[in-house]
Amino acid sequence: MQSNDYQALKQLIEDVSKITIISHKNPDGDAVGSVLALHNVFNNAKIKSNVILPDSFPENYDWLEGSDKIVFFEDNAKRAKEILSKSDLIFCLDFNATGRVGDMKEALEESEAIKIMIDHHPQPETFAKFTLSDTSYSSTSELLYYFLEQIGYDNYIDNHAANCLYTGIVTDTGSFKFASATARTHETTAKLMQKGANNALAQDKIFNEGKENRLRLLGYCLSEKLKIFEELGTAFFSLRKDELSKFNYTKGDTEGVVNYALSIKGINFAAFFTEKEDIISISFRSRGKFSVNEFSRANFNGGGHLNAAGGKSDETLDETINKFISLLSSYKNEINSSND
Ligand SMILES: [Mn+2]
Fold it and tell me: Of the four, 40, 192, 273, 302, which is 20 to 30 A from 228 by CA?
């Protein structure tokens, strides 16, 4: 099958009987939004599908239609494995490598289903038979809209699916602030609103239903934990386990905090280090040309996008931060000229 043979793909979707839709570990708004959008579209087209995620997602997405139907691998591995192994077709949304699904990796790789990847991260692996991968899209949700148009399924996007796609676009573009939000992104968003996406409701649900401890943790990070290296154009935050538990941390509570460091004039590179059970997890963000994808791939076993990437380290929090600081001088020119 040609990778752009959408007619054949549409036929395949309609011919098979077991379709599964999955996304990456620690699902974000784009992951949850895109899988549920496709699930809702298939429902409207009278096509059955299952949705599996490796683990749970932040509560602020549980208003999305179909979120209660998701099977979580971490809670129900047996059932998830069974679904994956019996699938004819597996849609892999918002990830580019089987390693991104965590403990679900083996079950995904072992499944004989035809895999379809729709994703916007650079350097995709080649495990899928059909790969629609384009880094010029703000989000997988935006790219999924394009895909649905190509197979003639955009008419099946109802208000529920539209809200799901809108959520993916809003969260991956920082509410349309990032450079990744192009004219096309806004055009797609307009079409979603015509199909019933409710922007005010969605933004309210996503951003204004937080918990007190999350806001206090943000305050603590901003006032106590921000380190700035002005001459290196870099700032970072870090949180130890004891600090996380003091604020009753749950997954997603520090999402977006790293971006605040980039709001300072002259800061083009930001990082957030979190001490997890047996690993240090890192978020990187940048403004302009400096590639945090390259930086993380080269130094911190991670990757992602030009301006947003993840990383990890097996060393202690202090060792990880020291390594980070010692690397900065060799990137100084790149960082400081990032916005030229
Ligand atoms: Mn995404």
Answer: 302
Give 207-221 pLDDT, tens digit per residue. 999 899 999 999 999
**CA 120 to ligand 1 centroid distance, Å:** 7
| Cα–ligand 1 centroid distance for 57 (angstroms) | 14
- 210 CA distance to ligand 1 middle (Å): 22
Q: What is the 293 CA–ligand 1 centroid distance (Å)?
A: 14
What is the model's pLDDT at position 3?
A: 52
C-alpha pair distances (Å), 177 with each of 140, 161, 182, 186, 201: 17, 23, 10, 11, 19
Express each pLDDT in 212-259 by its tens digit: 999 999 999 999 999 999 999 999 999 999 999 999 998 889 989 999
| Ligand 1: centre distance to CA 31 (Å) | 6
Strand order in the sheet with 234-239: 227-229, 234-239, 269-275, 280-286, 308-313, 303-304
Answer whether 122's CB lies under 8 Å from 135's CB: yes
**Ligand 1 center to residue 194 CA distance, Å?**
23
Over residues 56-62, the mean pLDDT reads 93
Q: Please tell me the distance from the alpha carbon of residue 165 to that of residue 106, in angstroms, as a whole number.
A: 29
Q: Which of 142, 145, 140 is nearest to 121 (CA)?
A: 140
End-to-end CA distance of the chain: 43
For residue 141, report the distance from its CA to the centre of ligand 1, in Å.
7
pLDDT band per the 50, 70, 90 thresholds, residue 1: very low
What 3-state class would DSSP assign to 282? strand
How many angstroms does the Cα of residue 222 sit away from the middle of ligand 1?
A: 26
Q: Is the pLDDT of residue 2 over 80?
A: no
